[in-house]
Amino acid sequence: MTGAALHAIFDLAAWCAAGLAMLWLSRVRGLQFPRQSFELPYIAALVFGAGIGAYLFGTLNLWVSGVSGIARSVEGALAGGIVAIEIYKWRHGITARTGARFALPLAVGVAVGRIGCYLAGLDDFTYGTPTTLPWGHDFGDGILRHPVQLYESLAMAGFAVFYVIAVLNRNATVITNGFYLALAYYGLQRFLWEFLKPYGALIGPLSLFHLLSLFILVYAAVMLATAQNTSVKHERAAA
């Protein structure tokens, strides 16, 4: 099976895992999230913004790195989705926080999807820089490289575990602000891993994805700093 086929399989698996995570939160754990975040116009705006961001930033990163072609980016999708939803909320006068239901799906989806990036090999252009560390991986060109895809997968899996434990313990603060915690964590870990990737620099040593990581991190920090813990209602555990 080709790397592209494996990547496609894990992309599908990531969507399925994210969907199951959302189902577990709402149906099994009984968490009640803002209604607006599951209405069709909201979902349409999210998908549109994420799609534009994924291809725009993925392709721009290729060009900046001196590689021709078209590419997709998970981080670009996140940035595009954030901008699209904030515009949508502003246009419709929505002031409630609407991202809480996406915290666990984001972490689980990235954790699963990055395995597909790892298996796709050199063609995916998500591999790391050369390393002499014992866990360096040869993606097919005889050079041992950082398996940064697995670094990110493990990092986001760790957040998913933290979030699930918080949900099981009915931690209202984490449940209410989970999406912004997930974004902050994602932005921070992604910023660090970008130093281990062979991407072209835009400002000093910083690549396009460094800048996107900072955007996501700052956005999350602002949302957390202004949170009032009123976005999500949760039922008490049965006595």
State the distance separating the first and last CA atoms. 51 Å
The average pLDDT value, as a whole number, equals: 89
Structural class: mainly alpha
**Alpha carbon gyration radius:** 18 Å
Percent in helix? 55-70%
Number of H- or I-type helical stretches? 7
* Main sheet attributes: strand count, strand direction, barrel closure: 2 strands, antiparallel
| Number of DSSP-assigned strands | 6
Please explain how this structure is put together:
- The protein has 239 residues and is mainly alpha-helical.
- It has one domain.
- 62% of the residues lie in helices and 5% in strands.
- It is built from seven helices and six strands.
- It has helices at 3-28, 40-64, 74-91, 103-120, 148-168, 172-193, 208-225; strands at 31-32, 137-138, 144-145, 201-203, 206-207, 233-234.
- It has a two-stranded antiparallel ribbon. Strands 2-3 form a two-stranded antiparallel ribbon. A two-stranded antiparallel ribbon has the order 4-5.
- Strand 2 (137-138) and strand 3 (144-145) form a beta hairpin.
- Helix 4 runs antiparallel to helix 5, helix 4 packs parallel to helix 6 and helix 6 packs antiparallel against helix 7.
- The longest helix is centred in the first third of the chain and has 26 residues, at 3-28.
- It is globular and about 50 Å long.
- The N and C termini lie far apart (51 Å).
- Mean pLDDT is 89; it is low at 229-239.
